[in-house]
Amino acid sequence: MSKICQITGKKAQLGCNVSHSKHRTKRSFDVNLFSKKFYYVEEGCWIELKISAAGLRLINKVGLDAALKQAVSKGYVDWKDIKVIGD
């Protein structure tokens, strides 16, 4: 899977490095992305998600189940793309 947050849908943006002489070269602004394991209480299993720091804050704020339902409804992740760890 590419560098896209499964909760917020954030992905890398393109931009320019601008030197002192105003010479512009292409670069990408990557997302603060990492893999994190969560215990999904509703299903009784561990899942692994690729999430950004903003996605982690969202999960802490609204809960894992609500964040997953919101991400699925917005099309950021599909239920079959969520990795279930050793059931």
CATH-level-4 superfamily name = Ribosomal protein L28/L24
How many beta strands in the DSSP annotation?
5
Q: Examine the secondary-structure arrangement and name the CATH architecture.
A: Roll
Query: What is the count of DSSP helices, taking H or I runs of 4+ residues?
Result: 2
Helix content: 10-25%
Give the neighbour order of strands across the main sheet.
3-4-5
Which structural class best describes the helix and strand composition?
Answer: alpha+beta
> Which term fits the overall shape?
elongated
At the fold tier of CATH, the topology name is Ribosomal Protein L24e, Chain: T
Radius of gyration: 16 Å
Short description:
The protein is α+β, with helices and mostly antiparallel strands and 87 residues long.
Give the topology, please:
Layout: E1 13-18, E2 24-29, E3 33-40, E4 45-52, H1 53-62, H2 64-74, E5 83-85
Antiparallel strand pairs: 1-2, 3-4, 4-5
Helix pairs in contact: 1-2
Structure description:
With 87 residues, this protein is an alpha+beta fold. It has one domain: Ribosomal Protein L24e, Chain: T (Roll), CATH 2.30.170. The protein contains 2 helices and 5 strands, in the order E-E-E-E-H-H-E. A 3-stranded antiparallel β-sheet has the order 3-4-5. It has a two-stranded antiparallel ribbon with strand order 1-2. Strand 1 and strand 2 (24-29) form a beta hairpin. Helix 1 (53-62) packs across helix 2 (64-74). The model has no long low-confidence stretch (mean pLDDT 93).
